[in-house]
Design goal:
Layout lengths: L1 H18 L6 E7 L4 H11 L3 E6 L5 H12 L3 E7 L10 H6 L4 E4 L8 E5 L3 E5 L5 H5 L3 E7 L2 H16 L2 E2 L7
Parallel strand pairs: 2-3, 3-4
Antiparallel strand pairs: 1-7, 2-5, 4-8, 5-6, 6-7
Helix pairs in contact: 2-3
């Protein structure tokens, strides 16, 4: 039994060395309309302990917004960058987030800010074509990719998020006269 265990550990160590990682990244995929990608996102948010960085083109999903608000109330540091189209979008959750004291930034620089990204606890990346919207969950054919255990990749996403934030403006709702 001891030799089998040693052989297994040796093989595992060699494979890890050859693959270039001690703990290899884990990926999870979800496809709509058959998969519940919104639920996978809210589950990941509900498990967050320190921070969530969000970049979104369209953000109209009430369940995802409510999950972020719950995380904020638990003490999770949340920051959101949205495309400028969300300022005038009828169903955008931008004001719900803002009034819960979640910092929201508007990315005006590119023609559209088309990213769909969450970075959770500087450990988990959520990305793909899936907009944070009901349409993405209920009507569209979308994909969602969740990646954990790849610190260099996470750092690239954080660097890009910070770059986009530096080029964005803090959101303040317009007061109607």
């Amino acid at each position: 039994m001891y030799l089998v265990m040693v052989r297994y550990l040796l093989v595992l160590l060699i494979c890890s060395f050859l693959s270039g990682c001690v703990t290899c990244p884990k990926t999870t995929v979800c496809f709509t309309p058959r998969g519940n990608c919104a639920e996978q996102i809210t589950n990941a948010i509900d498990q967050a302990q320190k921070s969530i960085l969000v970049q979104a083109y369209t953000f109209t999903s009430k369940p995802i917004a409510q999950s972020l608000i719950r995380a904020k109330k638990r003490g999770v540091d949340i920051k959101v960058i949205l495309d400028e189209s969300q300022i005038s979008s009828k169903y955008s959750v931008i004001n719900e987030l803002f009034y819960q004291k979640i910092p929201v930034y508007i990315d005006y620089k590119p023609a559209i800010s088309h990213s769909k990204i969450m970075i959770i606890d500087e450990q988990k990346i959520i990305t793909g074509s899936f907009n944070f919207s009901d349409a993405a969950q209920k009507r569209n054919a979308e994909n969602l990719l969740i990646i954990t255990g790849d610190p260099p990749l996470v750092e690239q996403y954080i660097k890009n998020w910070k770059d986009r934030q530096s080029q964005s403006d803090a959101y303040t709702p317009k007061v109607e006269e």
